[in-house]
Amino acid sequence: MTAEKINIYEKLQKAKKIISETKLKKTGKNAYAKYDYYDLSDFMPTIIKTFEELKLYSKISFTTESAILTIINSENPQEKEEYLSPMVDGYEVKGHNAMQLLGGIEKYQRRYLYMAALDITENDALYAENDGSGEQSAPSQAPQEPAETKQPEGDTITSAQAKVLFADTDESVLRKVMNEFGYKYTKDILKKDFDNILKKLIDEKLRTTAQRGA
């Protein structure tokens, strides 16, 4: 795509731009909550083609604690970016063996990591302050915390992390998990709680998928 050698950050930005301008089609369908979402197969061919043109290489690795997406500048392998997501452990579903559960977890992790790294977005229904109807709440109706309990800037999760939470997630499930941690809107979630919320979400989604497939 380009003859000049550019650094990994410029390449990643170019990749995000190309993907954002590509008309990706959502083939994932959640019949229960009646919404469509991006499956891995919807965006991976575009990512692979784009990375080949920009001379980027990516790989996913897993440890007992984390799923890691590493993106490397093939023209300068010393340049690399890593994206991490916490793994789920101690999870059991009746009728499903360990390898089936591991496969499901790894598929979710691959999807989350690529979406977060390349800013592939879904509808952010809860990220805006709304009542679930899709309409923006009036500023006067938005819940306000007392000034002394406001969190310092930088302590809350980024928009990219919020998108990870929204990826392939029933709104009702996300609301339920957020409520368990004392949050109403994703924009208020503290970074220190992100890993535990994501673990709980994956746990809930795998449980629901297993129950529906039983």
Report on the structure:
The chain has 214 residues and is an alpha+beta fold. It has one domain (8-133, 151-213). It is built from six helices and five strands; from the N terminus they run αββαβββαααα. Strands 3-4-5 form a three-stranded antiparallel β-sheet. A two-stranded antiparallel ribbon has the order 1-2. Helix 1 packs across helix 2 (40-54) and helix 5 crosses helix 6 (191-213).
Which features characterize this protein?
single chain, 214 residues, alpha+beta, three-stranded antiparallel sheet, two-stranded antiparallel ribbon, 6 helices, 13% strand
SSE topology:
Layout: H1 8-20, E1 28-30, E2 35-37, H2 40-54, E3 56-62, E4 66-73, E5 80-86, H3 98-117, H4 159-166, H5 171-180, H6 191-213
Major sheet strand order: 3-4-5
Unreliable sequence segments? 124-153
**Rg, alpha carbons:** 19 Å
The beta-strand count equals 5
What sort of overall outline do the alpha carbons produce when their principal axes are compared?
globular
Gap between N and C termini, in Å? 48 Å
> What is the count of distinct domains?
1
Tell me the β content: 5-15%
Report helical residue fraction. Answer: 40-55%
**Average residue pLDDT:** 75
Helix count?
Answer: 6
